[in-house]
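We were asked to recover a plausible sequence for a given structure. The inputs and outputs are reproduced exactly as logged, with field labels preserved.

PROBLEM: sequence recovery
POSITIONS: 165
GIVEN STRUCTURE:
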């Protein structure tokens, strides 16, 4: 139990040791410790300032990127609208060209049909004329066999011709 009840000599030496240790630490150790703490505080403050600057730069970069994205979207919309206008222009031009070509084809078809119609009419007229001549020839042969019928027919033809003249 002697450890818990120190005597006066022990207290004196302990106090003297503490004062010597305190003086030595105060003279040699504390300035280094206080400088280290001051540098540490300065480093922390510098780090906080750098972090704040980095945050501001990040915010600025984020803002610029949002502006770039907005401009890119606007440009994309503009390009899409121009593409649509070009597409519409091409479609309209193609439709007009198709109408013009169709008109040419229809006109050519009408001319061809008219030409074929005229040729068919000429051919029909020629056939009718040939048939009429053959029929008239056959009728005349039969009628001209009889002399009385020849005179009657000649009279009718003369009367008909005299009326037209």
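RECOVERED SEQUENCE:
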């Amino acid at each position: 139990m002697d450890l818990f009840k120190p005597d006066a000599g022990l207290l004196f030496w302990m106090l003297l040791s503490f004062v010597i240790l305190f003086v030595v630490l105060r003279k040699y150790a504390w300035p280094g410790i206080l400088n280290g703490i001051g540098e540490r505080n300065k480093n922390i403050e510098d780090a906080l300032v750098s972090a704040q600057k980095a945050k501001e730069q990040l915010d600025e970069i984020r803002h610029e990127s949002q502006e770039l994205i907005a401009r890119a979207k606007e440009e994309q919309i503009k390009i899409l609208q121009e593409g649509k206008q070009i597409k519409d222009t091409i479609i309209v031009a193609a439709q007009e060209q198709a109408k013009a070509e169709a008109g040419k084809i229809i006109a050519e078809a009408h001319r061809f049909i008219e030409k074929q119609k005229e040729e068919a009419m000429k051919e029909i007229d020629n056939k009718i004329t040939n048939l009429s001549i053959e029929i008239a020839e056959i009728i005349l042969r039969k009628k001209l066999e009889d002399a009385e019928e020849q005179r009657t027919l000649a009279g009718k033809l003369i009367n008909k011709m005299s009326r037209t003249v």
